[in-house]
TrEMBL record:
Name of this chain's protein: RING-type domain-containing protein
Spans traversing the lipid bilayer: 31-52
Signal peptide from the UniProt entry: none
Single Gene Ontology MF annotation: zinc ion binding
Family annotation (InterPro entries): ATL71-like, Znf_RING, Znf_RING/FYVE/PHD
Keywords: Membrane, Metal-binding, Transmembrane, Transmembrane helix, Zinc, Zinc-finger
PROSITE patterns the UniProt entry points to: ZF_RING_2 (PS50089)
Domain RING-type: 101-143
One Pfam family of this chain: zf-RING_2
Coiled coil regions, renumbered to chain: none
SUPFAM superfamilies the UniProt entry points to: RING/U-box
């Protein structure tokens, strides 16, 4: 060796333990174990999510194809429909402003049999409105229900009378 070369610098005493072989191996093991646990957790969550969706009946059909049975409104029964008056068009020709059926848009003829809805007094071809009322409980024109309104109960009359007497005592 050449005596003119300076000796190598001494190793820094404070950092030797970080560069030790045992510490690096332990650190790598901990990182590998942590990554393995993380992959196991992600796989478990993915499988649980997949099986939950697969067995759920609500996820098998899209929202727009689902039928909500509690929103279905049935039409009127046959007995109620048959209780509405039937009239020949020739009998109401002068009293009616309508000359065509609002359902089929066909003109009324003198011998056409019409049905009149009791609440709104609209006229329709008998066959047209009967089919309509079996599916829908309302008038096709004004959407009022042709069912007779229920009679007021005695309790409702008491409430009406008591509120009107309160109003008259406040006014005087």
């Amino acid at each position: 060796m050449n005596a003119s070369q300076p000796p190598p610098p001494p190793a820094m005493p404070g950092y030797n333990h970080l560069l030790g072989t045992e510490d690096i191996v332990g650190f790598r093991c901990r990182i590998g174990f942590s990554i393995g646990v993380l992959l196991l957790i992600i796989t478990t969550i993915t499988l649980i999510s997949y099986f939950c969706r697969r067995t759920s009946p609500s996820q098998t059909t899209p929202d727009w194809t689902r039928v909500h049975h509690h929103f279905i409104i049935d039409g009127l029964d046959e007995e109620t429909i048959q209780s509405y008056p039937k009239i020949l068009y020739s009998e109401v020709k002068g009293n009616s402003t309508s000359t065509c059926c609002p359902i089929c848009l066909g003109d009324y003829k003198g011998n056409d049999l019409l049905r009149q809805l009791p609440e709104c007094n609209h006229f329709f071809h008998l066959k047209c409105v009967d089919m309509w009322l079996k599916l829908n409980p309302t008038c096709p024109v004004c959407r009022t229900t042709p069912l007779p309104s229920p009679q007021p109960s005695p309790l409702a009359e008491v409430v009406v009378h008591s509120t009107s007497s309160v109003a008259t005592t406040r006014m005087s």
